[in-house]
Amino acid sequence: MNIAISTTEGAKPLELKEITTSAAWRGDVLSKGNSWVYMLSDAQIAELEILGARFVEADPDLRFVQKEEYPLVECAEAVKEWGRDVDSGRGFVLVRGLKTHLYSDALSAAIYYILGLHMGDPIRQNEKGDLIDSVYATSDKTMDDPTAKSSKVRDYLVFHSDSSDVVSLMCLRPAKEGGASCLVSGAEIYNEILRRRPDLAPLLFQPYHWDWRRQDKNAPADTYTSPIIDLTDGVFSMYAGSLYILTAQEYPGVPKLTPEQIEVLELFDKITYEPGMAIEMDFRPGDIQWLSNYAALHARTTFYDYPEPQRRRHLLRLWLSRQGDRPVIDGFGKNGVVQVRHKPREGQTVDDQGFFRIKDAPVPRLLADHG
How do 14-16 and 37-39 pair as beta strands? Predict the structure, then answer.
């Protein structure tokens, strides 16, 4: 299926073809094997434990510490391999083998942050400036409540993209039941749209307004703009989540969606949830998932916790800017509006609200952030 569109007036039409690289996969096929799981060796685990312990002892400021201060030897090639998986492969990898059940949460977080520095540059995740966030339920709200925060509730999460080049999760403790991570290939969704409705596929390259205020109540503007699909230098990238496109329609001055745009958004969502499209994985203690927000959408099943706070499902999350092998247009997705780690949000003169020390970083904000 080949069709041509013109992205700018006078430009050579872009020929749209189905994506045939490893980025286009179906969950029911991929789940039959374990090619997406990387098992750490004993030598790699030992190196990370030594570096992590040194990190905890040194207690560097997370805003300014550099990867060169914690060089990798045993894990160096592994990090390159994970980067290739994220940038130009299937778009994700699950790293397994760390013994977090034997570590303090600070040591686990230190190992995770060191790997994060080598995979990219951490960015701030909330108005306080936290560089490591806890995905930990502090509320019984459901996601139909506009005040609910997805990382602070137990409810099912719809497929979406996060606000970074790479999103990563590390499992400290799984839920009593549920909480599986679900991923779906953006390239395969796109392929299905091309097969079924080639007339609608070009609309995915148009700029859409996205609801910034709903994602961040302190955002400096109501919306930002981005297309859903980008094919810079022939490399497929996607940024999706129709909810924020639809809620952005409520703001004055935002152009109204055309019937055809609404139709392609509905088709995108329909295909996303069809049986066999997604892969589902349970997190074990110590698992680390690296995921390109441009390659796959992610979701989560509902989960049920233990009653004791210290036993509840607890994941650590990193958002990374990554200078890898994936070219995208300027401002694609949300990468044009994220907060860099070394300075606070524009207009803030005091930067003392974030957990910038490794002993604090993995502690859930039980009182300050109710979700």
Answer: unpaired
What whole-number distance in Å separates Cα of residue 355 and Cα of residue 343? Answer: 14
Residue 97 carries which side chain, given as an amino acid letter?
Answer: G
Q: Is 279 helix (H, G, I), strand (E, B) or coil?
A: strand
Q: What is the pLDDT of residues 87-111, one digit of tens each?
A: 999 999 999 999 999 999 999 999 9
Q: Considering only CA atoms, which of 365, 326, 354 is closest in space to residue 151? A: 365
Tokens 């007036």, located at residue: 9
pLDDT tens, position by position, 147-189? 777 778 877 688 888 878 999 999 999 999 988 999 999 999 9
pTM confidence score: 0.89
Q: Quick one: which of 147, 186, 117, 137 has its CA closest to 333?
A: 186
Contact (CB, 8 A) for 285 and 101: yes
Determine the angle formed by the axes of helices 42-58 and 105-119, rounding to 10 degrees. 100
For CA atoms 291, 208, 213, 152, the dihedral sign is negative
State the Cα–Cα distance between residues 357 and 162, nearest whole angstrom: 24
Let me know: does 239 contact 161? Beta carbons within 8 Å: yes
Report which of 252, 108, 87, 94 is spatially closest to residue 183, judged by C-alpha positions. 94
Specify whether the CB–CB gap between 291 and 168 falls below 8 A.
Answer: yes
What is the DSSP secondary structure assignment for residue 40, as one 8-state letter? P
